């Protein structure tokens, strides 16, 4: 049954579920599968080493689906930032109409994309940032609660509060992100005022997600208590799957006398983030964990094969590895049932007490 929300109408999708950008996961195979199943699939731009590689991936995705899909462009602080303008230009040139933006200082990229008439979904973890993005003219805000995978922000506000604050404060429609895995969650998000949901971790654990089976099985086995928050000391708090490397990094972060980021950098390097998804060793590289300081003249990112990977608290709700089609059909059915059931919870006629 098609949903009728601001999100489904604007994007031309059937089910109001977005697959959020995921570094080293958001390739054409996953994005196309999500779009074919009725949601919005999203390619992750920076998973492609160059803008030209992104162009190829967009073309590949288009060959796999005739449904709408988007591209995520994440703007994170870096010593040598990627050429965001060039990635945005490829997105425009290839005629992609939907972009998910995230991260710092998105103004220039959003301005460029809006000039090309692109629909923008911008991710935020605070209402203050959401309002700033609204002033930039974004079409939807994607409100990321503290439950979410990856960058959770520094304020630790869970979605029960954040979504209602969004409903109270924002003039721009919003979707709910972080902690969603099923149709009951979708129905709850709609009841709180969202126009749909965004899911990351749940889509990692699907047949089409191009990552190692061991990672998917680790998610199925995990509980909601199995994530770890690292990098708070440097105001870059990130939620990871709580493997040995993440827990060791956290210990160093807490106990370091110097507070020098170099001590944990080898543990949390995003550059090598891909390896665990390829080799499937969910504790990849722990044998190297005793070496804290990278040898001189060695790039931090390349010096240690230690590995962490991102996952949200929602790992506790994930118990299987369905196809995207199975997952989205199930979410659709559950959401409709939950919304129908809610109608039976009130009545026009007074209820007789059994007392
Ligand atoms: C493995 C992984 C990688 C991610 N990489 C990115 C990224 O590069 N850019 C981004 O904006 N969000 C990224 N996210 C966040 C997701 O897009 C989404 O907002 C988040 O997963 C929602 O929380 P959930 O995991 O509870 O569904 C990532 C999430 C995961 C699980």
From TrEMBL:
Record-listed E.C. numbers: 1.3.1.9
Gene3D superfamilies linked: Aldolase class I (3.20.20.70)
Tagged with keyword Flavoprotein: yes
Source superkingdom: Eukaryota
GO molecular function: enoyl-[acyl-carrier-protein] reductase (NADH) activity; nitronate monooxygenase activity
Entry keywords, A to Z: Flavoprotein, FMN, Oxidoreductase
EC category name: oxidoreductase
Protein name per Swiss-Prot or TrEMBL: Enoyl-[acyl-carrier-protein] reductase (NADH)
Source organism of this protein record: Rasamsonia emersonii (strain ATCC 16479 / CBS 393.64 / IMI 116815)
């Amino acid at each position: 049954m098609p949903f009728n929300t601001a999100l489904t109408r604007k994007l031309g999708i059937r089910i109001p579920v977005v697959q959020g950008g995921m570094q080293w996961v958001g390739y054409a195979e996953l994005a196309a599968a999500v779009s074919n199943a009725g949601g919005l699939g999203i390619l992750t731009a920076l998973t492609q080493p160059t803008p030209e590689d992104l162009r190829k991936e967009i073309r590949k995705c288009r060959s796999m689906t005739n449904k709408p899909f988007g591209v995520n462009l994440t703007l994170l602080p870096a010593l040598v930032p990627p050429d965001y303008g060039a990635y945005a230009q490829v997105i425009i040139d290839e005629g992609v109409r939907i972009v998910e933006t995230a991260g710092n200082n998105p103004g220039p990229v959003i301005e460029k994309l809006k000039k090309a008439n692109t629909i923008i979904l911008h991710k935020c973890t605070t209402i203050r940032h959401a309002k700033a993005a609204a002033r930039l003219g974004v079409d939807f805000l994607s409100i990321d609660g503290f439950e979410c995978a990856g960058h959770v922000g520094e304020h630790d506000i869970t979605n029960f509060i954040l979504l209602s604050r969004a409903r109270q404060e924002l003039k721009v429609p919003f979707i709910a992100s972080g902690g969603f895995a099923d149709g009951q969650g979708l129905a709850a998000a709609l009841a709180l005022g969202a126009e749909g949901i965004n899911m990351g971790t749940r889509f990692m654990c699907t047949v089409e997600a191009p990552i190692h089976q061991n990672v998917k099985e680790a998610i199925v086995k995990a509980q909601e208590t199995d994530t770890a928050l690292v990098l708070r000391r440097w105001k870059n708090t990130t939620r990871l799957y709580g493997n040995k490397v993440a827990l060791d990094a956290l210990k160093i972060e807490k106990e370091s006398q110097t507070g020098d980021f170099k001590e944990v950098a080898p543990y949390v390097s995003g550059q090598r983030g891909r390896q665990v998804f390829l080799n499937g060793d969910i504790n990849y590289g722990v044998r190297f964990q005793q070496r804290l300081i990278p040898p001189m003249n060695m790039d931090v990112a390349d010096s240690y094969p230690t590995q962490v990977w991102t996952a949200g608290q929602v790992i506790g709700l994930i118990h299987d590895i369905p196809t995207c089609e199975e997952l989205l059909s199930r979410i659709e059915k559950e959401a409709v049932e939950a919304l129908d059931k809610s109608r039976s919870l009130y009545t026009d006629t007074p209820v007789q007490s059994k007392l």
